[in-house]
Design brief:
Length: 209
């Protein structure tokens, strides 16, 4: 690639290409994907271009460079989301109900967890809500619990990380903070710490929805 103007040790052309790839990607673009797409460039140069963009976007008033779900995205700043919503006229069918948010929170903080355990924490049957969350690709079936009946175990997905702007699950805020931000009361059972489930892999006869 022809070297044009340099910013430090970063080619302005390479930085522009990396910016375009991150902006155009419908999902967070991972370092591995960037290295593959830019296979003719040294990895350290691609990494330097990413870091140069990260630094530049700290000065942008409307957009920000974020680490989400193991990759990079260029997104609007949170304080401007209301204006963006006006542009797209977000449809009510795209919004999650309070019941769905509560169920999603239980799964996020207790995963992997069964449907029965989720219902016990919430105090209501959650089978219908689980179906909605599966359809939205916010949760997935990751295995079976090693108990009689071998019930499915549910966990959150990469789409969940993207939707809520999380780098990984260690970025989950305190449940009280998430509940307040999303507008629901956290189920009392979420305050209890439970051991991780003993999980069985899915078999060939399992057909998750």
């Amino acid at each position: 690639m022809e070297q044009t103007e340099n910013v430090g040790t970063v080619s302005a052309e390479l930085k522009a290409i990396v910016e375009a790839l991150i902006f155009a990607s419908p999902e967070p673009i991972t370092p591995r994907m960037l290295y593959r797409l830019l296979a003719d460039e040294p990895k350290e140069d691609v990494t330097a271009a990413v870091e140069a963009l990260r630094a530049e976007y700290t000065q942008r008033p409307g957009l920000q460079f974020v680490d989400v779900a193991g990759g990079y995205q260029i997104v609007t700043r949170p304080e401007l989301h209301e204006w963006v919503r006006r542009l797209f006229h977000e449809r009510s069918t795209q919004k999650l109900t309070v019941q769905a948010l509560e169920t999603l929170a239980v799964i996020a903080y207790k995963q992997p967890i069964t449907a029965v355990e989720t219902s016990e924490i919430r105090g209501v049957n959650t089978s219908g809500v689980l179906g909605t969350l599966l359809e939205r690709h916010l949760i997935k079936i990751v295995g079976r619990k090693n108990v009689v009946g071998r019930p499915f175990l549910y966990a959150t997905t990469k789409e969940f990380l993207i939707r809520f702007g999380l780098k990984d699950l260690t970025d989950l805020p305190k449940i009280e903070d998430m509940a307040e931000a999303l507008g629901f009361d956290p189920p009392a059972g979420l305050a209890e710490i439970t051991p991780r489930e003993e999980m069985l892999p899915l078999g060939d006869d399992d057909t998750p929805v």
